[in-house]
Each structure stands twice: as C-alpha cells, then as structure tokens.
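USER:
Make up one protein:

ASSISTANT:
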Amino acid sequence: MKEELEIVIFSSKIQSLIESNYPNIVKLIKYNGEGLTKALHDIDGAVSARKAVTTFKVTQDGNNNFKTWSEYKDSIHKFLEQVNDDTRLEKARKSLAHQIWKAHYNRFPDWPPVGRTQSDDVDLSANDIHDDGQYTIAWMSEGKITVTDEHPSANVYKTKLGGTPVLRILFVNKRIVKELENKANVDFENAKKKVDSYTKSVGWD
C-alpha cells in the first residue's frame, strides 16, 4: 500500500489538485516526498491511495440519435460504478463519466452518414477534486480511449468506447491531515525535521 501511495502522491497533477487545501503538505512532498509518504502511511487513517489500469468497454445502441447519445453518458457512469462502487467516489464517477462523454462529443459532434462508421483515439487526461464529508478526494486519469460511432441504417445508432486508461485516486482524511498542515504552517522547519527523521520512527507529535 505504501508503494501505491508513493505512485499517487508523487503525481504532479495530484499535488496541484490538493495544493490549495494543503499547501504545506505539498511543500513537504517536494522537500522530502519519501519521508512524508512514510509518515502519512504510518498515521492510521490519514491518507490512502489507489492506482489502477482499467479496461473500459461501454456500448450503447438505440433508434433515436438524441436519446442514444444521452443514454450513452448514463451507460458510462454505470460502467464506472461496476468497476468501483465506493460511495465516496460517486462525485468522481459522475465527473469522469461527463469528461469521457465530452471528449467523445468533441471528437465526433455529429453521427456519421448512414452506412458509415467513425472511430478515433482520444486523450483521457482528466482530473478533479471534491470533498465528501470526512475526505478530500483527488483523482486523475491518463491515457487514451478509442471512441466509435456507427450508423448502419436510418434508425439505428451505435456508440461505444474502449481502452485501458490509468486511474489514480488519493483519499485525504481532512481532520487528520489538516492538523498536520496546521503544525507545518506554524513551524515548517520542525515539520521538515520530523519528515527527515521519520525513518527512525519519530512520530509527528
């Protein structure tokens, strides 16, 4: 789990997302990320992280072009829910579903002519941050997905996506990490010493 936390917390995008809420924590990451990661890992419940390469496969068929496109967005959200139904991630799922749907639309705003298919790879560099009660949740995706629209006959519309983007999620316990943030704000030099010496199991008191 510590290795997974390191992979996520060293992401510059994740750092940018949390910097406004935890500026001193981000400073400590940049100062000594390895030491801070060990400290946070050893503080029960402070942070957790997930990194996953997920195979995306979503399809939506219909006989009405507007309805099919609208239902496609719902199908993306349902797929993300099947991948991970953690209730804390509901806002993240909705945000990612919208950004996938928007990326597809930006590439192909119109259906292809009857009898034709259109397909292309689109970038899925998306990220967001939100509060969910006890946690601040920062997430990002990177990689490409393949989006495809088919219009085999006058009243038949098919749209789909596939790919294996990388997803990174950081859960920050607001109460615990805010206490650390405040301590670092009062005496940043002492916080640096704590981080530097954490390999000697010096606690953050």
About this structure: The helical segments are 2-9, 12-18, 23-42, 65-83, 90-107, 174-186, 188-196. The chain is about 45% helix and 30% strand. The CA atoms of residues 127 and 189 lie 32 Å apart. The chain has a mean pLDDT of 92.
